Amino acid sequence: MATIKKKKSVWINQVFFLIILILILFFYAGCVELEEQEKEFEEKVEVEKEVVELEIGLEEKENITLITLYDNYEFDPKLNTGWGFSCLIKTGDKKEGKNILFDTGGDSRTLLYNMEQLNISPNDIDIVVLSHIHGDHTGGLSGILETNPNVSVYIPSSFPDSFKQEVREKGAQPIDVSNEKQIYKNVYSTGELNSSIGLKEQSLFINTNRGIVVLTGCAHPGIVNIVKHIKEMSKNSICLVIGGFHLGSASESQLNEIINEFKTLEVEKAAPCHCSGDRARQLFKETYRENFIEKGVGKMIKI
What we know:
Blueprint: H1 2-58, E1 64-71, E2 85-91, E3 99-102, H2 108-117, E4 127-129, H3 135-138, H4 141-147, E5 152-156, H5 161-169, E6 173-177, E7 181-184, E8 187-189, E9 193-194, E10 200-201, E11 204-208, E12 211-216, H6 223-234, E13 238-244, H7 252-264, E14 269-273, H8 278-288, E15 300-302
Parallel strand pairs: 3-4, 4-5, 5-6, 12-13, 13-14
Antiparallel strand pairs: 1-2, 1-15, 2-3, 7-8, 8-11, 9-10, 11-12
């Protein structure tokens, strides 16, 4: 009887040991598989990053024309001014290029009047990009869509659903932008960048034969932060920064620091307008001299 109990005990111990061994092997196999999956994921992410950089660096460049359609600063006296900003980006030639409208100013009436004076039709617009939710950048959108709803409207994902629904109701297609995104050949969005007031804003940058052109709506995330972000993304020199710099309330010392940062970042030319402020424009002009571009409604820049 004792012998039977002893054999039974030995058998139980062997079974228990076998179970433990199986569990250890299973756990080890799982760890190896998980490690391989993590390695594969990391390699995939690295490849995707490399692809984005190659796309930015290797695409064939096209001629670019920038036309300010809406601004509170005057350039062409036959056009109307208003508080806001809108810039038309013309890429390539008429047959193969695209017309991208960056922001739409504060109201449709002023925007459409200025476009008419410049012989630009809403039907010429292929893509609309809105930098942020403020009305002085989105106010003219309805006027564009009433005439030409056949456009894609790239908007920050943080825009309210009601705004996106209005775009759909007018027949256009809203496209959410959260992260960096290619809008068109050589034209990219920074994706949503945060600001100190909690507002999210996207800026555009264009890869040209002269280097990177940066377009900002109001630069709520900070104009220097935006330029640094784009320079890091593009791995290229900055030939021009244009748009609202949001420096109207900045002190003299803050303005000088920002201009020095521009120089450190080797920004070749500057064209502040809209919310940049008179004093900021003056100081940029004094520092940049011939590389300062007097910006206002009707100004055309060819690159």
